[in-house]
Fold:
Amino acid sequence: MKVLVVGSGGREHALAWKLAQSKDCDELHAAPGNPGIAKLGHCHPVRAEDGEGLLAFCGEHEIDLVVVGPEAPLVAGLADQLRHAGVAVFGPSAAAARIEGSKSFAKDVMAAAGVPTAERLSVARPPCVVKVDGLAAGKGVFVCRTQAELDAGLQAAGGRGDTLVIEELLEGEEVSVFAVCDGREAQPLAPARDFKRVGDGDVGPNTGGMGAYSPVPRFGPAEVEELLETVHRPVLTELARRGSPFVGLLYAGLMMTDSGLRVLEFNCRFGDPETQAIVPRLEGDLLELLHGAATGRLAGNARAGDKAAVTVALAAPDYPERNDVGSRIEGIEEAEATGTLVFHAGTAMRGDHLVTNGGRILNVTGVGEDLAAARAAAYEGAARISFAGMRYRTDIAAGAEAHVG
Ligand code: AMP
Ligand code: GLY
Structure:
């Protein structure tokens, strides 16, 4: 099979890495890809948002499967465009991608499907959470415990001119659960936990994610299965009933509250950086899984092996305020020599040198017998890598390691 991965981040590098290992993968392409993916396949200068360009590319290269990484092209209708032309796509239609693209649509679907979520409030009064309705690249949610936070949140959110959704503020640990969906049925991947705040101890602004780990203690296969029954499958049924079946990766971001699990959000694609911790644990063939879903028939083995994985994002000095461009990156081979996986996120080649080109620059994933071993491996790898002002959280999976995975 000839496979095209759309996107250029650490998530796409991890997907490409696993897809390239499939016995059925004859050619791996990426658009636009990154220097890490370029070592596994062919990268082409076509942007993820360029639907026409991607369609032409698929025709020219006789692509058998397109795997779309980021949400923006999906919400804009890339999967529809490709599917209409007969190309198999792992990624939902624009209508189904609204589950991520519109918070109020997601709330309506959850209400109709009886899925537990934070209650919608008609008045904004602290404590509460203010959410911008549309896609906001992780910058559209304001958790407001005080009136001052609420004032600031409303101002920041309102300034964007979108409709707002106000909901109750929930407390608890978070977990991300991904399911591979073929429009009717869902097959779960291993759960993961993401670290959204920029600083150790969960301080500072929200980011795209500074690290992740999998498995999640106290959230084993039985809990995942129960969750699929109460969340993913009812949502799939409701979307199909509305005439927009969901084909792709349905990501539920959940909070484990004292009164049970509640959905915080849905995403219509793989999480970043959770994917970099989940994919290395997959026992089966990712290409078989994604191709099965894309062609309407779930197939393959989505189970995770017994090992644990911890991913640490190495970020630019002023991330998330500012990206960094052009600083030389050293030490990737040394990190890989310790046995860690290094996934590129914001990197570029300048001449013969790898340089920074973004906010989150690299992801280092350690794999081990348990979370403690995986965590030690990830940090040992990270310590071998350097670029000017490199920052990373030192507490990814700290604490969780004490539990048996
Ligand atoms: P979302 O993009 O909706 O996942 O929100 C981003 C982050 O905001 C989540 O990962 C949570 O940490 C937080 N969050 C979202 N909704 C709520 C809520 N209702 N209560 C508490 N925290 C929330
Ligand atoms: N890691 C959070 C996300 O991918 O949305």
Summary: The pocket of glycine (ligand 2) is lined by residues 194, 209, 267, 271-272, 274 (CB under 6 Å). Residues 2-93 form a domain with the Rossmann fold fold (CATH 3.40.50.20). The chain has four domains: 2-93, 128-168, 172-294, 308-403. The mean pLDDT is 95.
